[in-house]
Amino acid sequence: MKSVYQLEMNHDYAIKLDRIKEGEKISFVSDTMFEVMLNHEYRIKYASFLIRHILGLEVKSIKLKKPMLDKENVYKKGRRVDFVCEIENKVINIEMNNNPSFATVIRNFKYATDLFQQEVKRGEDYRKEEMVIQINFNNFSYGENCPVEETFRMMSDQRENSLLENFQIVNIYLPEIRRKYYNEGEITEVEKCC
After folding, report:
1. H/E stretch holding 163
2. Domain spans of the chain?
3. Sign of the torsion angle spanned by Cα atoms 139, 82, 40, 119
């Protein structure tokens, strides 16, 4: 079985990030714009909107968490996530990815597992851990017939059981939404919010 990241990369319909000229609008896929749109108390409604539409969660209250992940030691590279919040018993991490490299995949997986690890409190029952969900907005896609959205969980190859129910990664391939819109003319409500 191949990992999705071993498939051929497709840049068709990706949003190109060129230098912005004065008066031009900045794309949502820009790291700067993505951070401005999500990491501010006054714009929390936008993050709530995305989470509600993508995950189907009813968002009653949302608590922003610090975007810097804890360092294990002074020599470790600092790690800053694009966005992280808490909704009831769920920790939601949202990343915007413009670099289609395997390093991006590993980095995002480490972010998600580090957030999962941080939620384990000393003396608590491990089965009561909060759920960690990472949403990756990818400005690239992989392979032929790439879906708009893929959800990954830790699953057994032999049985249809998951190892953990409280850890998942959702990849949204933005170029596939654009391809669908240009070729079919219609996209879903969920796809419109991306």
Report:
1. none
2. 20-192
3. positive
